[in-house]
């Protein structure tokens, strides 16, 4: 049980600081360790990310220091919620295509690895890439839809792609993007969980593991939120880049493992 708590706690600390939700670390690490089935890990990771983002967002909004631009963040969140529904259905479709669930994990790991590698490349070069300032609600919904599909399908909550999208399309700085990313993650994961419950597709999992991971997620969110306030954008960027590099390596391992390599 300790390993589930430690992974969830540390991932959620980093997730709250960087705005990546923590699932982008939890999912590949638990896949690598092979302690639960692929479906169970996706579900447990999503629940952990939901608990962490719920705490972080509600706490920040209550204190009036969330940094969330509601005019942009709300239509993004609505789109992400719809995307969460679609992403869950996409995961179930892919899962039904493979008798070997290790292949499902390999597909997820490959997609996450490509997305993370692209995110890392963008982050390293973002100072040279011109950004935009989109405010049209419909465009925000469409962008949120794409984010929700990816996050729900991969079981990572939101992940690094949220930050790149918020940098590029909305010209947000690192810490503002982190706050808005968690807001989006909250809605996409809530929609994904509701869909799972409504369609009776909850995988077999151990309740004690869920309790331990949710506790780690909330605890990590508390610590990460405090650390975020003390860190400047450059330090957050360095942590983010380090995590992306680590995740890419883990994804490569998980693809090879899932394919029997």
Short description, anyone?
It contains 10 helices and no strands.
Explain this structure to me?
The chain has 261 residues and is an all-alpha fold. The protein has one domain (2-258). 81% of the residues lie in helices and 0% in strands. The protein is built from 10 helices and no strands. The protein has helices at residues 2-18, 23-33, 38-63, 70-97, 101-125, 137-154, 160-170, 174-198, 207-230, 233-258. The longest helix is centred in the N-terminal third of the chain and has 28 residues, at 70-97. It is globular, with a radius of gyration of 17 Å.
Beta fraction: under 5%
**Total DSSP E strands:** 0
- Percent of residues in helices comes to over 70%
Structural class: mainly alpha
Number of domains: 1
Averaging pLDDT over every residue, what do you get? 85
Largest sheet: none
Euclidean distance between termini CA atoms = 28 Å
Key structural traits:
single chain; mainly alpha; 10 helices; 81% helix; 0% strand; globular
SSE topology:
Elements lengths: L1 H17 L4 H11 L4 H26 L6 H28 L3 H25 L11 H18 L5 H11 L3 H25 L8 H24 L2 H26 L3
Helix pairs in contact: 1-2, 1-9, 2-3, 2-10, 3-8, 3-9, 4-6, 4-8, 5-7, 5-10, 6-8, 7-8
